[in-house]
What we know:
CATH topology of the largest domain: Cytidine Deaminase, domain 2
Shape: elongated
Structural class: alpha+beta
Number of strands: 5
CATH superfamily of the largest domain: Cytidine Deaminase, domain 2
Oligomer: single chain
Order of helices and strands: HHHHHHEEHEHEE
Radius of gyration: 24 Å
Distance between the termini: 58 Å
Amino acid sequence: MYPREKFLKFGIQNLSDMELIALVIGSGNKSADFLKISSKVIRRIKKIISMDNEVTIDELASIQGVGQVTAMKIFAGIELGRRLYYSDRFSNKCVVHNSRKAYEYLNYLQDKKKEYVVALFLNSRFELIKKKVICVGSVNNVSVLPRDIIIPALEVNAANVILAHNHPSGDCTQSNDDVFVTKRIKDALELVGMKLLDHIIVGKDSWSVVKVVQ
């Protein structure tokens, strides 16, 4: 089944990367059919990305069977997707680059009558992707487990995490449970390639960072 027919019958989400490129390329030329050309294009793009280089029109146009006009179409599709994705997701994102900024964002927790555990999931540029209430209760080794942080972090492809909770008493002094949970979550996140930047405690008009002894 050709990509166009597959698109119309099953929807664009069921097309492979190669089939998506094939839709842009069209019918190909006499020397190579469009699926073979698409395969070459995908391999070249993946190679360029793996080397942390930018995809260029000249690079795509140098592939046999592509040419400058088709390369421009592919490049335009890549650029349009990049602009729409980043303008929608990140243009108005809050940047949380230190614990003070996190406190400013989360100081509303000081007014909570119960203890809230909240996680901020950040990308590699420390832009806020998502804020999530992990649980309501107390911070201890029963109520907050590493998986409660790791699973939602993986779902949004986070690179960094900031954890926070409030002390309804208003005292932001860390407890032994705070230290235990912080170290446990920090170690677990590192195993899956993510970093716990800070675990802050929000008190009445005050805050502190949980100190973990290595």
